[in-house]
Amino acid sequence: MAQHVTLLGLTGSGKTTTAERLAEGAVASGVALLVVDAKGASLRAAARRLAAAGGLDYREVVPGAPGTLGYSPCAVGSRAQVADKLVSAFTHGPAGQVYRVIAMETISILVGILQGLDEPVTIRRLRRELDRTRMPGLAHRARDVTPELADDLADLAKRGGVTADAFEGMRSRLGALLHGEYGAVFDGDGPQLDLPAALASPGVTYISLPALAVSQDTALMARVLIQDLKQAAFERLRQPDTAPAMLVLDEFAALDDPAQINDLLRQAREARVSTVVSTQQLPDPRTAHALRSALLGAGVVIAHRVGPDDAEAVARVIGTQRGVQVTRTIGDDGEAARRSVRAVDRYTVDPNVMKQLATGEAVVLSIVGGRRVATLRVLQPVSADPA
Questions:
Q1: Cα–Cα distance between 19 and 190 in angstroms, integer?
Q2: Distance from chain centroid for Cα 181
């Protein structure tokens, strides 16, 4: 599982139960578990159960839920990384690239100044400081602490035109984060989720991303979260003795950011964060070829009942085996007049098998420690509620 797990299956095929069993095994082995649930609630009860059964710390980020942790995108990364994270959460068409560059520069400067002044860096604070009338005052206060950044901020404050428009545009975008579904999570002043800490020691962390409920808000949160997960993985590379962790991305396709997810998989593998990517179907090869290849090349591929295209793709990855095909020619009298035998290559697992698997059945390909293929049934956890 150190080389990741791809978990495929149509709705009702047993995919969620398999994700739960994999998580159960990880927790039992003392591995930190982080679940990002794009369905919004399907794995929440399982995450709580696993934490309770193991006597482990349980943390969750669930918008509107009592006791949810807050989450600050500004807490992880350098000032440039924080700026990139916030600006990249929003799309900027080709004509908007100049606004993107200005916003990146300005937020990076603001983060650096606030850090230098030892003042909180939050989305709300950055939104407030993205104002030409406030910038000179902040620059003046920072002159003795970060003189170069103070000069740069004072210079930005003098510019009008496109620069002023970029400030206003980014203020509106940050306002969209604060007033969206995750606004209370981003803006809360209570306990905050520490992603690096959540991945560093045994425990269970659950993050709800109900993509189908509030798609735009979830997309913003997902982009920010993926950037932070990449950064947390990068930080783990500097600590070679860090314990392994598992990340479960349930219904990741709903997050609609294949390039970033592919980058995350590469970073996570080197950082000893085993990732279970659960999805109803493989990404479209025309728009997400790299991610599709990465998923089919995972250390473990688990296919529950899947559609025709995915069945063919998985069958090709599993491979073929040499066999013998016998053909007979029937004469006019109905008797076999001639027989021929030839060697042929057949799929090791026929695609039709994967299209017709019963709920809970799966074809599994493992390439770690030797290539193995099996068809098996995934059982419900013993302590799960039969209902």
A1: 31
A2: 19
Q: Which two tokens stand for residue 384?
A: 């799960």
Task: Evaluate whether 35 touches 208 at the Cβ level (below 8 Å).
Answer: no
Q: Which two tokens stand for residue 73?
A: 């995108």
Q: Which two tokens stand for residue 248?
A: 């479960």
Among candidate residues 250, 258, 176, the one with its CA nearest the CA of residue 210:
250
120-176 pLDDT, tens digit per residue, is: 999 999 999 999 999 999 999 999 999 999 999 999 999 989 999 999 999 998 998
336: tokens are: 């076999």
CA distance 117 to 58: 34
Residue 249 in contact with residue 38, Cβ under 8 Å? yes
Which tokens go with 58? 């349980």
Give me the helix-helix angle, 215-237 and 258-270, nearest 10°. 20
Q: Give yes or no for a contact between 123 and 187, defined as CB atoms under 8 angstroms apart.
A: yes
d(CA 174, CA 194): 21
**Sign, CA torsion 17/23/27/29:** positive
Rounded to an integer, what distance in angstroms lies between the CA atom of residue 30 and that of residue 335?
67
pLDDT recorded at residue 336: 61
Q: Which residues of the chain have pLDDT under 50?
A: 386-387
pTM attached to this predicted model? 0.86
Residue 215 is predicted with a pLDDT of 63
Residue for token pair 């709920």: 359
